[in-house]
Design goal:
By secondary structure, the chain is an alpha/beta fold. It has 10 helices and 7 strands. The chain has 2 domains: 44 residues, no CATH class; 191 residues, P-loop containing nucleotide triphosphate hydrolases (Rossmann fold, 3-Layer(aba) Sandwich). Helix 3 packs parallel to helix 4, helix 7 packs parallel to helix 9 and helix 8 runs antiparallel to helix 9.
């Protein structure tokens, strides 16, 4: 399947000539019929229906414009630490154990957002409802809703962040230089993190310029929950172990 677009090209291979149907496999019904060994007939959702769902979920996620450049096939690396990041991200993707989160923190420009987006894209292709939450932008939206007395919209958005199958929080606790997150921001993030922490069915992916110890210093309750859920997939990128990919594109991109 193409990493750039979710489409029918791969599915259409080896199918009979087009007879006017968008999908000749199911004749646009959205399902196919099969029989088991005992002759019992059962229906299965067709690939075309799954692709349509995935396309819809991609548009809703907020990641549609990012996945062209930020997917697993476009991640290039020359250094050991980059390969370790990549391997850990893929390991997380295929880990079916419930309750595991993915956290990557530290050095600016090291590819954190790229890998987290790549993970989300694969979950979306598996028809998992996903929301991208860029920290500063999301809080700007929440503040505008409260200022406009749009309480219903505020509650709906907050609830969606708490309950979506996959949530990607990008740049957790990123603030203006020299500032710390406000008590209100910490309270809102705690609500989201705690709600998701108590439901092991949900997946949470977090990137931050902070490492987990720095998150703990801001709020122990938030940091401890993130650490417990992501202890098997907790990547810290220090100044000593990595260089800034954005400043060295010729070295990284082969």
């Amino acid at each position: 399947m193409s990493n750039q677009h979710l489409n029918y090209s791969e599915m259409a291979k080896d199918q009979p000539p087009d007879l006017g149907y968008k999908c000749t496999k199911c004749k646009d019904k959205g399902y196919t019929l099969s029989k088991d060994e005992s002759g019992y007939e059962y229906s299965e959702e067709c690939e075309c229906a799954l692709l349509e769902k995935a396309n819809h979920l991609l548009k809703q996620s907020g990641l549609e414009k990012m996945v062209h450049d930020s997917n697993f096939s476009t991640f290039r690396y020359d250094y050991v630490w980059q390969g370790q990041m990549f391997s850990k991200a893929q390991e997380y993707l295929f880990d079916n154990k419930k309750g595991n989160w993915f956290f990557i923190g530290g050095k600016v420009g090291a590819g954190k957002t790229h890998l987290c987006t790549a993970i989300c894209y694969e979950f979306i292709k598996g028809c998992m409802r996903t929301i991208y939450m860029p920290y500063r932008e999301a809080f700007s939206v929440l503040k505008r809703m409260l200022s406009a007395n749009a309480r219903d919209e505020f509650d709906h958005y907050l609830q969606s962040l708490k309950t979506t199958e996959v949530l990607y929080i990008d740049d957790l606790f990123k603030c203006e230089k020299g500032k710390l997150p406000t008590s209100w921001e910490i309270e809102m993030i705690y609500e989201i993190i705690d709600s998701r922490y108590r439901n092991s069915e949900l997946k949470t992916i977090i990137s931050s310029e902070l490492n987990i110890n720095q998150v703990l210093e801001i709020d122990e309750a938030i940091g401890s929950r993130i650490y417990e859920r992501s202890k098997f997939y907790n990547i810290i990128l220090s100044e000593q172990t990595c260089s800034n990919i954005r400043l060295n594109p010729l070295k990284v991109q082969k």
